[in-house]
Amino acid sequence: MASEKIPDRTGASRELLLTALPFTVVTGGIWWWMGMPLVSLALPLAGYALLAWLVVAGVPGQQGIGPANRVTFYRALGVVILAGILLEPQLLAVAQWAWVMLALAVLILDGLDGYLARRFSVSTYFGARFDMEVDAALILTLSLAVWGLGITGPWVMLLGLMRYLFVAAGWIWPWVNCPLPESFRRKTICVWQIASLVIVLVPITPSWLAVWILAPALMLLAYSFTVDLAWLYRAGGQHETQRHGTET
C-alpha cells in the first residue's frame, strides 16, 4: 500500500523563523519606548509562537505561506501587539494616538489579503478562516480598549464577544456549524464595527459621541448574526429537528 505523502512545510517554517527576530526587535522597542515591564513582553512573544504554529500547520506548502496569508499573519501580529499593550492601561492612555494608528494600519491591511488571494488565485479555506479570526480578535481587542479607557460601559464588550458566543452556540446546536455562503453584508458590517471602534478610540472623539457611534454598530452586528442564524436554521436546524422527532 502506498504511503501517504507528508506535506513539506519547510518553506513556511523558514519564512516564519526569519520573521521572528524582526518582530522581537520591533516589539521590544515598542515596550522600551512605552516603559512597559519586560516581563509583559512574554505575551506578544507567546502570541507570535502560537500564530506561527497555526500557520505552519494550516499551510502545507514548501514555497512559503503565500502572499495573502503573509498579510493576514502581519495583521495578526499587529493585534498581538495591541493586546499586549492593554496589560498596562495607564500607558495605553499616554500612547493612545500611536495605539490607534497601529489599529488603523491593521484595519487598512484587511482588504489587501483578500485582494492578493484573488489576484494570485491562492484562496483557501484556511486563509478565509484565518482572516475571519484575526478580524474577530481585533474587534475584541478594540472593545477591551474602549471599555478599559472608560469611553463606554461594559456593554461595548458585546461587539467583541458576539463572534465567540456564536462559536459557543455551535457546541450546543450542531447546525450552527454549517458553512455560511459568502456575504457582502457580513463583510461590510465587520469593517463597520472595526472602523467605529477605531473612531471612538481616537483621543479627540468626544466621549458623548461614542454611544451614538457604537450603538448602531452593535445593532447592525446583532442583525447580521440574526440573519445568519435564521439561514443556518433553515438550512440545517429544521432538518435536525425533524430527524430527532422521527427518532423519538
Layout of strands and helices, then pairs:
Elements: H1 10-34, H2 42-58, H3 67-85, H4 89-94, H5 96-108, H6 110-119, H7 125-148, H8 157-172, H9 184-201, H10 207-247
Helix pairs in contact: 1-2, 2-3, 3-5, 3-6, 3-7, 5-9, 6-7, 7-8, 7-9, 8-10, 9-10
Transmembrane segments: 16-34, 40-59, 71-87, 93-112, 132-149, 211-233
Family: Belongs to the CDP-alcohol phosphatidyltransferase class-I family.
Protein name: CDP-alcohol phosphatidyltransferase
Q: How would you characterize this protein structure?
A:
The chain has one domain (10-247). It is built from ten helices and no strands. It has helices at residues 10-34, 42-58, 67-85, 89-94, 96-108, 110-119, 125-148, 157-172, 184-201, 207-247. The termini are far apart. The model is unreliable at 1-6 (pLDDT under 50). This is CDP-alcohol phosphatidyltransferase. It comes from Halovibrio salipaludis. The chain crosses the membrane at residues 16-34, 40-59, 71-87, 93-112, 132-149, 211-233.
Task: Please give the number of β-strands.
Answer: 0
Structural class: mainly alpha
Total domains: 1
In the predicted model, the low-confidence regions spanning at least 5 consecutive residues are 1-6
Radius of gyration: 20 Å
What gross morphology would you assign? globular
End-to-end separation in angstroms reads 44 Å
Number of helices: 10
| H and E order | HHHHHHHHHH
pLDDT averaged over residues: 86
Helix share bin: over 70%
Strand coverage percent: under 5%
In this structure, how is the largest beta sheet organized?
Answer: none
Family: Belongs to the CDP-alcohol phosphatidyltransferase class-I family.
Protein name: CDP-alcohol phosphatidyltransferase
GO molecular function, one term: phosphotransferase activity, for other substituted phosphate groups
GO cellular component, one term: membrane
